[in-house]
């Protein structure tokens, strides 16, 4: 397909139908390791699509959730070790920090000809830091949904698909690509975009720290603070910073593009936006370049590894999220959301 003049490989469900995926994986036992963020959506979609799926999860609240979702202890729900031993395709859907801690155990159960599957390139891309170095006699593959596991499941139940990227890192069997695409279709992907482990991991970490989460929070907070410091009320500052963006403008440029949104705004808004976006671009691009190099060099991976491996990580995380949640801007958001027409 042509993306702005660049041709990329994209697989569709029409080209690779579900029946073909089932045929390719008919003799496989798919062991989903981890039932946290991606595990439920991917495993349930695979099960509903008719594949042979089992789940590996340590006992606890997450294990109980798997039972509630219909996985049967001793039949389709096992310990991580037993599921990995039973699987011919081992889908490692643990968090990056958990992958590191489980890897010494997991790799013992990977047999020649097995496939090791990830939904994020982190562990393999920075395996000099994570220690996740797979044996040469297994396939190492990836399908990375472009959204949360919850979205993957919700869209599947609605009869839609969530787009994913896919990659083959190591093809030991000659079947790695077929396995990858079959799994991509099986988990409920829409379009499948070809990538590499390194590109997926680097772009993913850059996006999370940049425009998807980190940069957007920093930008919104800066504008909100400037408006407040110059005498604007909390509701006015929030409406002009966040509410109009998320409720009015984002749907417009998500559907038809930024130029279309500009064309359908007032002439005053058009002129101001066209004059000021180059200034923001020039100010922000050096920060984005710094961010990208920090990701590509492995610095960000190491920061994540060090932070997420601390025994009190969850306690520190909750403090940071609590501070954000209780900030004036996001407390104002609670009231503003209640005043939306659909809530009255």
Give the C-alpha Rg.
Answer: 23 Å
Q: What's the CATH first level of the largest domain? A: Alpha Beta
Order of helices and strands, N to C? Answer: EEEHEHEHEHEHEHHEHEHEHHHHHHHH
* Beta strand %: 5-15%
Short description:
The chain is of the alpha/beta class and 344 residues long. The protein has helices at 18-24, 39-48, 61-68, 80-86, 96-106, 122-125, 127-130, 149-157, 176-186, 197-209, 214-229, 234-256, 258-263, 267-296, 299-308, 313-325, 328-338, and strands at 2-3, 6-7, 10-11, 30-33, 53-56, 77-78, 89-92, 115-118, 139-145, 162-170, 189-194.
For the structure shown, list the relevant keywords:
alpha/beta, Rossmann fold, N-(1-d-carboxylethyl)-l-norvaline Dehydrogenase, domain 2, 9-stranded mixed beta sheet, two-stranded antiparallel ribbon, 56% helix
Descriptive overview:
The chain is α/β, with parallel strands linked by helices. It has two domains: 2-195, Rossmann fold (3-Layer(aba) Sandwich); 207-343, N-(1-d-carboxylethyl)-l-norvaline Dehydrogenase, domain 2 (Orthogonal Bundle), CATH 1.10.1040.10. The chain has 17 helices and eleven strands. A hairpin with a 2-residue loop joins strand 1 and strand 2. The longest helix has 30 residues, at 267-296. It starts with a strand and ends in a 6-residue tail after the last helix. The model has no long low-confidence stretch (mean pLDDT 95).
């Amino acid at each position: 397909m042509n993306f702005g003049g660049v041709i990329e490989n994209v697989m569709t469900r029409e080209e690779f139908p579900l029946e073909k995926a089932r045929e390719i994986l008919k003799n496989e036992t798919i062991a989903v390791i981890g039932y946290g963020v991606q595990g439920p959506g991917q495993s349930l979609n695979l099960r509903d699509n008719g594949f042979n799926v089992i789940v590996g999860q340590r006992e606890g609240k997450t294990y109980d959730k798997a039972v509630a979702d219909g996985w049967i202890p001793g039949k389709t729900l096992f310990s991580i070790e037993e599921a990995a031993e039973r699987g011919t395709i081992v889908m490692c859907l643990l968090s990056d920090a958990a992958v590191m801690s489980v890897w010494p155990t997991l790799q013992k159960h990977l047999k020649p000809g097995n496939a090791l599957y990830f939904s994020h390139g982190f562990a393999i891309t920075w395996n000099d830091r994570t220690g996740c170095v797979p044996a040469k006699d297994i396939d190492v593959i990836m399908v990375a949904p472009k959204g949360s596991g919850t979205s993957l499941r919700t869209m599947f139940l609605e009869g839609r698909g969530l787009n994913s990227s896919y990659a083959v890192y190591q093809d030991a069997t000659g079947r790695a690509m077929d396995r990858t695409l079959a799994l991509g279709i099986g988990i409920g992907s829409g379009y499948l975009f070809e990538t590499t482990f390194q590109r997926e991991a680097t772009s993913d970490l850059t996006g999370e720290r940049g425009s998807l989460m980190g940069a957007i929070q920093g930008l919104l907070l800066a504008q909100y603070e400037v408006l407040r410091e110059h005498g604007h009320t909390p509701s006015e500052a929030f409406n002009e910073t966040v509410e109009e963006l998320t409720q009015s403008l984002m749907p417009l440029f998500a559907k038809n593009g930024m130029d279309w949104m500009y064309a359908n705004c007032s002439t005053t808004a058009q002129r101001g936006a066209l004059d000021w976006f180059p200034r923001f671009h020039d100010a922000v691009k050096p920060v984005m370049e710094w961010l990208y190099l920090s990701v590509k060099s492995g610095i960000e991976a190491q920061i994540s590894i060090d932070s997420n491996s601390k025994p009190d990580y969850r306690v520190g995380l909750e403090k940071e999220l609590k501070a954000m949640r209780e900030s004036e801007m996001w407390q104002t958001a609670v009231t503003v959301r209640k005043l939306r027409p659909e809530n009255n």
